[in-house]
Amino acid sequence: MRQAFSGFSEGESFEDALGRLSKMPAMPPFDPALVAFVSAFSDRVRALPGLRSHPELATLAHWFRGSALRNMARLVEGDSRYVTRPRGLVFHIAPSNVDALFAYGWLMSLLCGNTNIARLSQKSSDSKDWLVGIVRDLTSDPMHANVARRSLLLTYDHSDSATADISSVCHARLIWGGDSTVQLLRTVSLSPLAVEMAFPDRFGVAVIKSSALLHLSDEDLSQLAQRFCNDMLWFGQQACSSPRTVYWVGQSSETRAAKARFWSAVSARAAFVQEDDAASRMARISDAFLIAAKQGNISLKEETSLATYPLHLEAEGPDASSRELQSGYGMVLESSISDLSTLSAFLDDRDQTLIEFGFDDEEIRELVGSLTNRAIDRIVPMGRALDFSSTWDGMDLFSILCRRINLRAS
User: Fold this and answer.
1) What is 3-201+393-406's CATH number, 3.30.420.110, 1.10.10.410, 3.40.1190.10, 3.40.605.10?
2) Per-residue pLDDT tens digits for 206-236
3) How many whole angstroms separate alpha carbon 19 and alpha carbon 371?
4) Which residues make beta-bridge pairs with 249?
5) Which pTM value belongs to this model?
6) How far apart are CA 48 and CA 367, in angstroms?
7) Residue 409 above 80 pLDDT?
8) How many Cβ atoms are within 10 Å of 296's Cβ, its own excluded?
9) Which of 74-78, 185-189, 242-246 has the weakest average pLDDT?
10) Where are the alpha helices (DSSP H) in 189-247?
11) Angle 109-111-112 (CA atoms, 0-180°, nearest 5)?
12) How big is the chain by its Cα radius of gyration, in Å?
């Protein structure tokens, strides 16, 4: 069953709306009317009464603030050898695990002058309802109505023919979802000139230098623990950049002491970031038994119980495959290695974000130089795992949302 959220004229059918957007003239990238719409959207998100309990929405509003929009415009402008134009009609398939994520790609595409259709998750959530409500309000505002009608926001069953109908006429398709979603949608043909960018299942990995952590004051350690909890626990650890594995680098005696300090500080901060619940606790316990049964290489410290939040399990040796058995909800596996340069052997294509603490630029660059596969598209300091960027999974989103017309050489 199809449900329209915004962008439809009164009495307009899906087929008519699709035809209208397919023929709608392009707008120049970062046209003042587009910038005004996105600025108004950001301002209204910032004014939401429940914003304090939804930090992901505060981050979204900040990302599209005025100064950031000016920086984006400079990125898109290019140089005198090119004229930058919109891609055309862009089809967005939103994820179900992070409600605000669809808004980044959609608003960027809108700023580029494209028309847009976004299929939102069928799951109900406050975040989605608030964002859709803001778009509806802007649609009824005479200052922004024309821009608002350049996008359709809707939802429908995956079995619906709407996906094929949109895919047959769109110029770009952005898929945010798990592996199964990407594989399913890739069976749906695109028009020959269309491009596609897919964001399948990926994982975050944290790496901590034991000696650096031991040198922290109690106050600095508490702040680091807060940042780690933000990275790990927001969205129930479902974000593709949230860490599911922690690697400790250093001598064994240093690492033992560093772990004890770190996890004590993390336990003290976790409930302030995301409260635990019975369903999440059962998911962690089930995952722990599953990993133990399949791999047999994990253990609990004597002072740790399966009810610990967040739960950290000791792995005898690094094993990237264990993250496939985790469902998140506040659990990580941790392993110890002697040197950062050895980490590359335990990373593979599924590892998207490396969250680091305690290493200098030279050490990080040496690690990057040792990567022999598709592993790691982002390296960020602890606390920045969930930051969004116009370069995601190693790809420039603006290069998909815009096209460049080469000008002849003089």
Assistant:
1) 3.40.605.10
2) 999 999 999 999 999 999 999 999 999 887 8
3) 47
4) 209, 337
5) 0.89
6) 42
7) no
8) 9
9) 74-78
10) 210-214, 218-233
11) 65
12) 23
